[in-house]
Amino acid sequence: MSLVRAAGAGRKPDTGNSVSVVNGSECLQKVEIPLGLRDETATRVWVTQSQVLISRQLLTEADLPILLSYCNSFSLYLQAEQEVSEGGLTVSTADGGLKKHPAINARQDALSSLIRCGSLLGLDPLSRTKIFGSGNNNSEPENSFKDYV
User: Residues 50, 41: contact at Cβ < 8 Å?
Assistant: First the structure.
């Protein structure tokens, strides 16, 4: 028989599904620059972001492909942004009309990949909060409805 909670039955018990910081023995202390980086921009991002993740003790061997994708996405984003800046938002078609510059779609795809990979690595504020907690030292979160109980 499964347990069913009644509406208003209070806070759900912690099921252990919360994100935890990586085991210290798995964390990398140093990483080499991989060959798969597309250009100097991606290489610079690799160096800076790998150091950020190492200092936070979040970088493991399993994270390296995601970091590679993050760095290449950043480089692609900057290249597409440059092309849009130089070429404008539209290009002429064969029949003389205008259409959206193809680099706009490439820029958006690169940005989406950048956001997704950055979130997986803990490089954005929301995922950092999930990994490290909200910074509140109280073990129990304050119940905002306590005055109504």
Answer: no
